[in-house]
Specification:
InterPro entries: Rieske_2Fe-2S (IPR017941), Rieske_2Fe-2S_sf (IPR036922). The chain is mostly beta strands and 137 residues long. The chain contains one helix and nine strands. The relative contact order is 0.26.
């Protein structure tokens, strides 16, 4: 499993996402309230660029007339037909048993660790005094 350095932490503030291609795969990395998540940027329904869709929440109901809105900003809605996926896990809310988007672990590493390796930093210049977002593939 390779660890890819994708950006300095400052370039990916909360609520933003970064698109990139790693090992030939289209991927987006999200910062959700300070936590980082990688997701394949291809919808399992008909192949849309899923991660270009809007970030929404999850509406659930235990009883008629009662709607609870949770996971605000943690669900992505496909821009083509509206299927919804959990960014943390890739789980589909349309058909959880059949459809899932590949999710990738992402986290922050200090520059000092990145410099020691083993990391792939093809497009990012690494400085020891900075922190970096890393995705595992
Ligand atoms: S391609 Fe994503 S919902 Fe159809």
């Amino acid at each position: 499993m390779a660890r890819h350095v994708i950006a300095p932490v400052d370039e990916l503030p909360p609520g933003t996402r970064k698109f990139l291609e790693i090992e030939g795969r289209p991927i987006a990395v999200f910062n959700i309230k300070g936590e980082y998540f990688g997701l394949m940027n291809r919808c399992p329904h008909q192949g849309a660029a899923l991660c270009e869709g809007p970030l929404i929440g999850l509406a659930q109901s235990k009883d008629p007339g009662e709607i609870e809105y949770t996971k605000l900003g943690e669900i992505i809605r496909c821009p083509w037909h509206g299927w919804e996926f959990d960014i943390r896990t890739g789980q589909s809310y349309c058909d959880p048993r059949r459809f899932r988007v590949k999710a990738y672990a992402a986290h922050v590493e200090p520059g000092a660790s990145v410099v020691k390796g083993p990391y792939v930093a093809e497009t990012v210049t690494v400085k020891v005094e900075s922190d970096y977002v890393v995705v595992e593939l």
